[in-house]
Every structure is written in C-alpha cells, then in structure tokens.
Design brief:
With about 130 residues, the chain is of the alpha+beta class. It contains 5 helices and 4 strands; from the N terminus they run αααααββββ. The protein has a 4-stranded antiparallel β-sheet with strand order 1-2-3-4. Strand 3 and strand 4 form a beta hairpin.
Length: about 130
C-alpha cells in the first residue's frame, strides 16, 4: 500500500486524500478537493481522470495525448491553494485560486490559476481557467 504523502500538499497520505478519487471509489465533495485531486492526477499521470473531471461538454475535445505529454514532461514540485470562493458541499459553483510549481527543462515554473468549477448531478467538474 502506498503510504507516501499525497502530492496535493494536504499533509495526509495518498490513500487518505486523493487516492479514493483517482481510483474511482469516491467523488470529491468540494471544488477544492477536486482541484487537489486533479493536481495529483497530473503528478501521477492519471490522464483519464483529468478528462472525466472536465465539464462534460468539453470532454469530447479533450487532448488526451497532449495532456499526457505535458504531464510527463514536467516534474511537479508542489501545490498551494491561495483562495476558495464557494465550492462547498452545498454549493453548485466554486472558484479555486492556486499555484502549482513544476520543473520543465531544468527551470522552476509557477502556474498561477483562478479556476471555475461547477456541480452537476451531485458531482464537481473543472470548467475553465478564468
């Protein structure tokens, strides 16, 4: 069993955090939990999860190969959630502002994003960067 810390930076183990989402046993209850699990999916190169958690109308045009290449070419070094707006268990919309750090070509990069999430049929989805 993988007892390593979850890549999302929560401070808990993978199987106590994002593991149940990526392995299909549970769905994230908040927009932040979904965002953290999507970061973990990039780290672990779980590209199908990234597609499945994308807003349904965008899934048909998801670039699986390009996303897989981008995830594998980078060394993910950390995630920090900077702010959340709504996105709780009772909400239908949410915003998560985060920064993800990664090494690419020997250079450390910081990806800062304000992400929009929506809930449909009781499940959170990533919609877009705004």
């Amino acid at each position: 069993m993988d007892e390593a810390a979850c890549p999302c930076g929560s401070g808990t183990g993978y199987f106590a955090c994002c593991g149940p989402y990526l392995e299909g046993g549970q769905i994230p209850k908040t927009a932040e939990a979904l965002m953290r699990s999507r970061y973990t999916a990039y780290v672990r190169e779980e590209i199908a999860y990234l597609k499945d958690t994308l807003w349904p109308k965008f899934q048909a045009k998801f670039d699986f190969a390009g996303t897989a290449r981008w995830a594998s070419e980078n060394h993910w070094t950390g995630l920090r959630v900077l702010k959340t707006e709504q996105g709780g268990e009772e909400d239908r919309d949410g915003i998560v502002v985060f920064e993800a750090k990664y090494l690419a070509g020997g250079t450390l990069h910081t990806h800062l994003e304000k992400s929009r999430f929506k809930k449909k049929s009781g499940r959170w989805y990533y919609v877009e960067a705004i």
